[in-house]
Design a protein that fits this description.
Helix 1 packs across helix 5 and helix 2 runs parallel beside helix 3. The radius of gyration is 14 Å and the shape is globular. It is about 40% helix and about 15% strand. This is Response regulator. InterPro entries: CheY-like_superfamily (IPR011006), Sig_transdc_resp-reg_receiver (IPR001789), TCS_response_regulator (IPR052893).
């Protein structure tokens, strides 16, 4: 039996988080989704200091919103890519921002791709499914 694919969603909007959860639940793949509501919680999770963290269980992929409380997505991305133990993790920016400066800045900080969230419910689900299809069936990720 194949191990579940581990995804960390860093998202403070409960509606977007719920929609992402629902989309992954109907997936043909086995996906374990963890959610952090801001960059501080995400770093605690990734560094095994969160009450939700399972020691040594880093995600295969991080879905990162940019507009977060406490520690925003730009700052978290910079922290991830500066950390020898975390920089290898692929990071997909999944945000409502269409600002060119956000796109340029996140790629400069090492984001693996940038996806703008559509406002339409069905379109959002299609985007999440496309991310899943690409990252878990096309791309080859390093083994744990």
């Amino acid at each position: 039996m194949q191990d579940a694919i581990k995804v960390l969603l860093v998202e403070d909007n409960p509606a977007d988080a719920d929609l992402t959860v629902e989309t992954f639940e109907v997936s043909k793949l086995k996906i374990d989704l963890s959610i952090a509501v801001d960059g501080v919680e995400a770093l605690a999770f990734l560094r095994d200091k969160s009450r939700y963290a399972i020691p040594g269980m880093q995600p295969d992929l991080i879905l990162l919103d940019l507009n977060l409380p406490r520690k925003g997505g730009h700052e978290l991305l910079a922290d991830l890519k500066a950390d020898d133990g975390l920089r290898h993790l692929p990071v997909v920016i999944l945000t409502s921002s269409e600002a060119e400066q956000d796109i340029v800045a996140t790629y400069a900080k090492g984001a693996n791709c940038y996806v703008t969230k559509p406002v339409d419910l069905v379109a959002f689900q299609k985007i999440v499914q496309a991310i899943e299809d690409f990252w878990f069936t096309v791309v080859r990720l390093p083994t744990r």
